[in-house]
Design a protein that fits this description.
about 150 residues; mainly alpha; two-stranded antiparallel ribbon; 2 strands
Length: about 150
Amino acid sequence: FIYYREGDFKTAAQWFRRASEVPDAAEWLGPLAAVTLASGGDTQSSRMLWRQLLGSETDWLRQIADFRLRQLDAIDETAQLEQVTAAYERRFGTPPPSWDDLLRAGLLPRIPIDPAGYPYALTPRSGDVTVSEQSPLWPLPTERPS
């Protein structure tokens, strides 16, 4: 927990994972390691842990693993969408005011939808993208994949 509080998410996750492998360890340690990796921006390593937990015999672990994997997909998609908003800004000198502007510019084929089926939220002044507060995936554990 000290590593986590200090912002060293990778080391914290390594210790959480090691603790999860101790006989009779608490079941929540594996998910904690995966969430910690995502919080630190390491979506690939987090995804590997969640995929392992998806095969668990425990229902709640499988359900949370499915949910977290969809969140990780959303994190990666927001990073891709922010590349599109940056391309718009390079072309027009300002971040896109709306998804419609990106559609008209030919940079997107349709308004992007998150893995839960909700349109992503676009911040017009910055071009930042995240899941909508109405999405069951909100809030994301991190918005910046490594």
